[in-house]
Specification:
By secondary structure, the chain is of the alpha/beta class. It has 2 domains: 14-142, Rossmann fold (3-Layer(aba) Sandwich); 168-350, Rossmann fold (3-Layer(aba) Sandwich). The protein contains 14 helices and 13 strands. Strand 10, helix 12 and strand 11 form a beta-alpha-beta unit. Helix 2 (28-38) runs parallel beside helix 6 (134-142) and helix 11 crosses helix 12 (284-291). The longest helix has 14 residues, at 213-226.
Length: 360
């Protein structure tokens, strides 16, 4: 978060978005645009407990307010009361409501926080801002202003910006040393997604992002053959560790590591900034990796790459496979051979000889 004290001549924008990790990564160009337009880093009202870690040290983020359940009635939820109190104490400014679910409840919290309807823009009312890709949609939305809060036009790059703190880099260096990975080429694999977390094995049949174990194993064996000096790191949330350990054992490869049990958002950010490449299903860590310049391949099921394709710094190789445009409604429609052939054309980064710092 930004520690700079803003000038009191500027109103402070508030952005409301209760999304998953990928949603919050895709939101960062809007935050950059609003800072440029209003001269102050916007505050963020979100729901993920990991949000402060994702945005730690971010130059375009002010204060972060964390909401709990949006389904509880206002009168029964002390956290909603505390957020309303905090909103009353902040400097007023325009409010950009980016959610399309539980909007009535969110509006109630905002109203108790002293925010007037005329101060608020809701994306659901701004149909002329619709664009296929989320980033372009958010930038079109952020170019508007509530009537009481006009601001000059501005432009920013249509890509996410993430930061990796010096503390996260020190932590990664120690973590790599503890696992015997110092100086190795790091390749990240992200087999799970938010749907994996919610449904577990029972949900695999209805999960269009799931790829069979045998295909992940065959792919890892092919990667190990083409990059024998690489460490293949199976990443995910700590609750996915059992699934990843199963993949690790099935691969029968000593260079495959299941690391979800020790993974945090800040550590994953540092890994993405230093990895040679990533293979992922369409999920939040893929957006993190792209934002930090990591070459990657993303596997799509029913979601469209035209809407969800990660974006990164110029010349970052980002290759989508699957998706409705290519006749794939499930990741299982993507053959292993196609993935391996594409992987062998992906220009990987070199070994992390020096752990990088700063912002991509």
């Amino acid at each position: 978060m930004s520690d700079a004290l803003p000038s009191f001549t500027h109103p402070r924008p508030l952005v409301v978005r209760c999304g998953a990790v990928g949603d919050m990564v895709l939101l960062t160009p809007l935050l950059a645009l609003l800072q440029r337009r209003y001269g102050v880093a916007p505050d963020v009202l979100a729901s993920g407990a990991w949000t402060p870690e994702l945005y730690a040290g971010h130059p375009h983020v002010g204060s972060i307010f964390l909401l709990g359940s949006r389904r509880r009635p206002y009168w029964s939820d002390p956290r909603q009361w505390s957020i309303s109190t905090a909103l009353q104490q902040r400097r007023p400014g325009p409010v950009f409501l980016c959610d399309e679910r539980a909007v009535v409840q969110i509006r109630r919290i905002l109203a108790h926080g002293g925010i007037r309807e005329r101060d608020l823009l809701w994306v659901g009312d701004c149909h002329d801002t619709w664009r296929p890709h989320w980033i372009d949609r958010w930038l079109a939305f952020g170019a508007q202003s509530p009537v009481p809060w006009p601001a000059p036009d501005a432009a920013v790059e249509a890509r996410p910006i993430l930061t990796v703190s010096a503390a996260a880099q020190v932590d990664l260096r120690r973590w790599l040393q503890a696992h015997g990975l110092t100086g190795k080429r790091l390749i990240l694999l992200q087999p799970g997604s938010k749907r994996t977390l919610k449904r577990g094995r029972r949900g695999l049949l209805g999960n269009d992002k799931a790829w069979p174990v045998e295909r992940w194993v065959e792919t890892m064996q092919g990667m190990a053959s083409s990059c024998p000096d690489a460490a293949l790191l199976l990443t995910g949330a700590p609750s996915e560790q059992a699934m990843l350990r199963h993949l690790q054992r099935a691969s029968q490869l000593s260079q495959v590591y299941a690391v979800a049990s020790t993974m945090t958002i800040s550590r994953l950010l540092a890994l993405c900034a230093n990895a040679s490449g990533m293979l992922a299903v369409d999920t939040g860590p893929a957006h993190m990796a792209a934002a930090l310049g990591c070459p990657l391949i993303v596997l799509y099921g029913s979601s469209s790459p035209s809407t969800w394709l990660p974006r990164g710094p110029e010349n970052t190789p980002i290759i989508p496979l699957g998706g409705p445009e290519n006749g794939c409604l499930r990741v299982t429609d993507i053959p292993t051979q196609t993935v391996l052939e594409t992987w062998n054309t992906l220009p990987l980064r070199g070994k992390p000889a020096t752990i990088c710092t700063g912002m991509a």
